């Protein structure tokens, strides 16, 4: 059981209580073993000794809390040697305690009547007591980390259920949508080949999105989809838009959860301005897929560049992507976005997603 909890006043009073307790135990052992009267000596010396014990306890508490936060900061990984951890604690107590005692005796704040014997006695009492105190703090930190881990797991489960619900909603009567597209397709005159081709592309894209979203697909399939989606989007600005795609050719045996790059590509087409340039790079290095995409911004609209970047970062598509990545690739992905500037290209918005497979 922890003596201190994060929501309890004892978290702040605990070091004082432990410092007082440790000092009184020291007094009991030293006075009674020497057959002296308990708390014998001047009140000034004992008051100073009590204050030093309390202050020492607060200093160690601050140091140990920072140390424990580093050790157990990642709720999913506890990778520390307990023996080395406690050895470091003992060394820390010895290194901090003895100079404090020596300085206090030197200035006449405390009285060490038996010299080295008293030093040994103080260490013999304080080291076990403060190891016990560290253990209580450590258990508190573990309890907090495990509670945070349970909350994180429950959140992941909740997000997964929400994602499944969204999937069910997106799949609701998909045949109605395809039938509607089929009806529109046959209402278009045969001479309007561009419109018919757009309907065909849209139908293929929707079919891929609806039926392949919940299981892995080959990377080759995903690249075919990306090329089709880019081709479909380019029809909006066929003359002004320049799309450059640099994709590694060999993806044999690589499988991935689909549509993870879709929101980033969609953002690029949505916010492209200025030179109307979009660059897409998809690389495979050491079992890690790197997807990078950048779109140009309008350099003449300086006040709006930050707004565009902020909108791109805060869109619902990107938020859904972040949640989905946490579900399908926990601790195996990195998503970053930023605005860049160089003299040749001007301002551009860059997004990069790395996935370990």
UniProtKB/TrEMBL annotation:
This is Inner membrane protein ypdA. The chain crosses the membrane at residues 12-30, 42-64, 85-104, 116-136. It comes from the Bacteria. Keywords: Kinase, Membrane, Transferase, Transmembrane, Transmembrane helix. The keyword Transferase applies. Residues 163-241 form the Signal transduction histidine kinase internal region domain. One of its GO terms (cellular component) is membrane. It comes from Sphingobacterium thalpophilum. GO terms for molecular function: phosphorelay sensor kinase activity.
């Amino acid at each position: 059981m922890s003596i201190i909890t994060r929501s309890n006043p004892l978290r702040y009073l605990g070091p004082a209580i432990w410092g007082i307790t440790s000092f009184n135990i020291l007094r009991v052992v030293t006075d009674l073993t020497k057959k002296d009267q308990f708390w014998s000596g001047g009140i000034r010396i004992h008051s100073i000794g009590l204050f030093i014990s309390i202050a020492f306890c607060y200093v160690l508490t601050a140091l140990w809390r920072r140390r424990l936060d580093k050790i157990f900061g990642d709720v999913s990984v506890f990778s520390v040697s307990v023996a080395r951890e406690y050895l470091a604690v003992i060394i820390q107590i010895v290194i901090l305690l003895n100079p404090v005692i020596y300085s206090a005796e030197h200035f006449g704040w405390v009285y060490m009547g038996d010299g080295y014997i008293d030093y040994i006695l103080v260490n013999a009492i304080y080291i076990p007591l403060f190891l016990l105190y560290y253990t209580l703090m450590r258990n508190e930190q573990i309890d907090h980390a495990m509670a945070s881990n349970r909350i994180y797991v429950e959140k992941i489960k909740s997000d997964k259920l929400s994602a499944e619900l969204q999937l069910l909603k997106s799949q609701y009567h998909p045949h109605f949508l395809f039938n509607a597209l089929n009806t529109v397709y046959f209402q278009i005159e045969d001479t309007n080949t561009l419109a018919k081709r757009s309907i065909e592309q849209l139908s293929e894209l929707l079919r891929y999105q609806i039926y392949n979203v919940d299981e892995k697909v080959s990377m080759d399939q995903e690249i075919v989809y990306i090329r089709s989606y880019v081709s479909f989007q380019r029809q909006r600005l066929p003359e002004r838009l320049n799309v450059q795609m640099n994709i590694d050719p060999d993806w044999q045996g690589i499988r991935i959860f689909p549509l993870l790059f879709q929101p980033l590509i969609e953002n690029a087409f949505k916010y492209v301005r200025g030179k109307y340039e979009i660059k897409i790079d998809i690389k495979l290095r050491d079992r890690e897929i790197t997807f990078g995409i950048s779109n140009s911004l309008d350099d003449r609209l300086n006040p709006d560049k930050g707004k565009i970047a902020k909108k791109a970062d805060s869109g619902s598509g990107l938020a859904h992507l972040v949640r989905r990545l946490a579900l399908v690739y926990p601790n195996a992905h990195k998503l970053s976005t930023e605005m860049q500037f160089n003299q040749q290209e001007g301002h551009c918005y860059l997004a990069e997603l790395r996935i370990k497979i």
